[in-house]
Structures are given as structure tokens and as C-alpha cells.
Amino acid sequence: MDNSAQGGKAYGLLKSQQEEKLNSVNEAFLSDPQYADEEDLGSKLEMFKKKYVDFDLNDKGEIDMMGLKRMLEKLGLAKTHLELKKMMSEVVGGTSKETISYNDFLQMMLGKRNAILKLILMFEGMGKDQEDKDSAPPPRKTFSDLP
Fold first, then answer.
1. How far apart are CA 126 and CA 118, in angstroms?
2. Region 7-25 average pLDDT
3. pLDDT at 145 over 70
4. What's the burial of 147, exposed, middle or buried (CB within 10 Å: 0-12/13-18/19+)?
5. pLDDT per residue over 39-69, tens digit each?
6. How far is 53 from 36, CA to CA, in rounded Å?
7. Model pTM?
8. Residues 6+ apart with CB under 8 A from 84
9. Is residue 57 classed as helix, strand or coil in its secondary structure?
10. Which secondary structure element, helix H or strand E, spans residue 63, and what is its range?
11. Residue 100: how many other CB atoms lie within 10 Å
């Protein structure tokens, strides 16, 4: 029996379930009075959702340590295990959770705290807009360059 088609189908199903889950989290944020004053909340949430699914999500649709590591490596920011743990705990508020849920992710992106991961993603977003105008490769960012 050929399993590969099944795997692809299951993956597609997982993706659409994840998408639904993320959409429902977005709706909860849209109706949350805490974020009522947030400008363009709808489009921000849509953008954050795209960023979130850029990560390699685990089977629960959350960002785990490996997903975080791979994402940062893609951005040219290889991190040690210790740095990754620190970034994780910044996002999930110091709990010893091993994953970042979409809820955690949104709270980080919309929150007032400047988590390192948030700065990196914001910076990376700005970098994307510049890329079209400027074809020279940007200088590699290191941790010491971050504010």
C-alpha cells in the first residue's frame, strides 16, 4: 500500500485544521477589548499569522525549539540552545513551556514587551521591504547589533 499520498493528504488536513485554529485565535484577539485601540488589528493579525506559519510548526501547530532554531537559521541568525531557551521563555513569560503557541506569539507581537524574537521578526519584516530597492546583501546581524 502506498503511504505517500496519505501522508500528503493528512498534512493538508493538518494544515487546514491549523489554519482554522489560527483564524479562531485571530477572531478572539479581534474581539478582545485589550486590543481595541490597536490600529489595523485585522491586517496585523493576518500578517502575524503568515509569519507564524513560516515556522516549522510541530504536530500541535506550535513552534518548538527546533522550529525556532530553523527559522532563525533561515534568517542567518544561528543561535545556541541556551539563547533559544531564553528567547522561548521571553515569549511564554518565563514558564518552562517547550513550545510557543499562536496565542503566545500574538501576545508577544502585540504586547509592549520587546522580546528578542519580536525584534528579529520586526527587523526581518522591514528588511524584506528594503530588499526590492537594494540588491546588495545586508550585513549579517549578530546579537551584539541588537539594541
1. 12
2. 83
3. no
4. exposed
5. 999 999 999 999 999 898 998 899 999 999 9
6. 25
7. 0.75
8. 65, 68, 69, 72
9. strand
10. strand 63-64
11. 25
* DSSP state, residue 111: S
- The secondary structure of the chain in percent helix, strand, coil, rounded to multiples of 5, reads 65, 5, 30
Spatial contact of 109 and 119, defined as CB atoms under 8 Å apart = no
C-beta of residue 26 within 8 angstroms of C-beta of residue 38: no
Residue 79, pLDDT > 80, answer yes
In sequence order, which residues have a C-beta less than 8 Å from that of residue 41 and are 6 or more positions away? Answer: 29, 30, 35
Residue type at position 147:
P
| Residue among 94, 95, 90 nearest 105 (CA) | 90
C-alpha cell at position 41? 488589528
How far apart CA 43 and CA 45 sit, in angstroms, is 5
Residue of 87, 90, 92 lying closest to 102 (CA atoms): 92
Residue among 48, 56, 65, 59 nearest 102 (CA): 48
Q: Which three cell numbers stand for residue 59?
A: 504536530
